[in-house]
Amino acid sequence: MLLLEERIRRDGKVFPGNILKVDSFLNHQIDVRLLEQIGEEFYRLFSADRIDKILTIEASGIGIACIAAQRFGVPVVFAKKTQTKNIAADVYTARVESFTHGKVYDVIVSKEFLHAGERILIIDDFLAKGQALLGLIRLVRSAGAEPVGAGIVIEKGFQDGGDLVRQTGIHLESLAIVESMDDDGTIRFRH
Amino acid sequence: MLLLEERIRRDGKVFPGNILKVDSFLNHQIDVRLLEQIGEEFYRLFSADRIDKILTIEASGIGIACIAAQRFGVPVVFAKKTQTKNIAADVYTARVESFTHGKVYDVIVSKEFLHAGERILIIDDFLAKGQALLGLIRLVRSAGAEPVGAGIVIEKGFQDGGDLVRQTGIHLESLAIVESMDDDGTIRFRH
Questions:
Q1: CA dist., res. A22 & res. A178, Å (int)
Q2: Count of alpha carbons within 13 Å of A28, Cβ hemisphere only?
Q3: Yes or no, beta carbons of A77 and B30 under 8 Å apart
Q4: Is 0.90 topped by the overall pTM?
Q5: B-chain residues within 8 Å CB-CB of A110?
Q6: ipTM at complex level
């Protein structure tokens, strides 16, 4: 998505350790007009998949998912992250290891809001090592629902998450795939 | 807002201890069509206040703020909650005591995204004891920006947060004010 790549080039900030900060338009300050374009693109890519519901994960996926969901005309469910040891019986859960933060947490969704047979599109801002997304996929399957697609705004193509998710057979679409980043701030995209 | 009151009556769940759960449409599963109506109502109530930016707090305020922001044509900034002891120098911060969760946390916003003179509308899902909202108001003022309004979806009118916030002189609008809840599930609204 050219508009998004241009925005990442213009306003993204590269830090040592392959860190890309897009705080100014995606995950701290949010440009809702850009999210409308992103939602439109996700609709173009996934409308044929007959989506019943969009699933995302707190916090930075929520705005993206809500504005995309307007276009699809479906509800959003956002999974919650918890480190509580006692997981209630009325939730679906998946354990996720965060490499970024060096900790393990559970993602949970109330059983009220995921049902067998539902066709789920998972939306998130970033895909790097893929652990959160793979956790959401397991969680959807544990509900008997079908994770038909995953829509990602920015994939770090030099990490292995994208390959791991593609191996599950899910229809994965990343609107911008970063091939490499240099410490001088140069960003190359995969096309 | 009658549509919202009807939805709370129909789908809200009352639990002992004055707990009102609106998980099915507002803060776990999200009805984006309802959020569009809520955004429209916030626009009606606050458009005369010439808003430059909408500020909310993770996680459940984000969807509400983003869809309202589409109507206003302004960006959203969401404050992050942290319990980290080391607060960076490049953020505005306010300490908040959560009565619900019995802990103290900091809300932070990067100094890049709040500027002196900006007219800020704060949006959140719930107002009860008001500590989070009062923290956001302090945070906005510490940036030299002006917290001109606060838009709340559901206020618990039997708790003192609404009075505390109104005493600050800020234009506060709550779309539904719960006057009382009974253990049998009866909800009364203030008009």
A1: 13
A2: 18
A3: yes
A4: yes
A5: 23, 28-29
A6: 0.96
